[in-house]
Amino acid sequence: MHVLVAHASRHGSTTEVAARIAERLRELGHDATLRTARDRAPLDGHDLVVVGGSLYTGRWHADAQRFLRRHRGDLGRVPVAVFAMGPRRDDPDAWTAARDQLESALAKLAWLDPAAIAVFGGKDPKPKHGVVRDLRDWAAVDAWAESLVGGGPTTR
Ligand SMILES: Cc1cc2nc3c(=O)[nH]c(=O)nc-3n(C[C@H](O)[C@H](O)[C@H](O)COP(=O)(O)O)c2cc1C
After folding, report:
1. Domain spanning 2-148 has what CATH number?
2. 76 in contact with ligand 1, CB cutoff 6 A
3. S-S: 8 plus which of 53, 92, 132, 135, CB 3.0-4.6 Å?
4. What is the CA(61)–ligand 1 centre distance, in A?
């Protein structure tokens, strides 16, 4: 499969997750292209498009939303998977809030019917009491990437 992974990040942690997804897909034998969501290049030739963005003050990154709107025509013909990140506190309320925030962004894109939706833990850009809070779960990111392409290695 040819997969495009588009990312919308302020401080880089979402980009790192997108890069990990692309890397995992390559390990499984797929072609994966990593692109910022600001890239306006056409989406020709992809079998799956993954769009990730961070959440800030209740909103999914504007570049992720713009990317989906800009490519609406092409995205009607190809499966789309989306992810957001993410909670900086590992408590159920933070996870629920993040999921709701992503869902309300997606509700504004009623034409979009994502093949998969995920919320990953975030990385706080600023240390708190000298500690960088990083809830990113790389095994969960890998597992999600695998689920997008049916789980197993492919031969091309
Ligand atoms: C000022 C600020 C506001 C944030 N607001 C939210 C939020 O409303 N919901 C949420 O789930 N995460 C929120 N986060 C956590 C970020 O989504 C998380 O740190 C993410 O990993 C940042 O991604 P980036 O490094 O790609 O910019 C916030 C982080 C900061 C610094």
Report:
1. 3.40.50.360
2. no
3. 53
4. 10
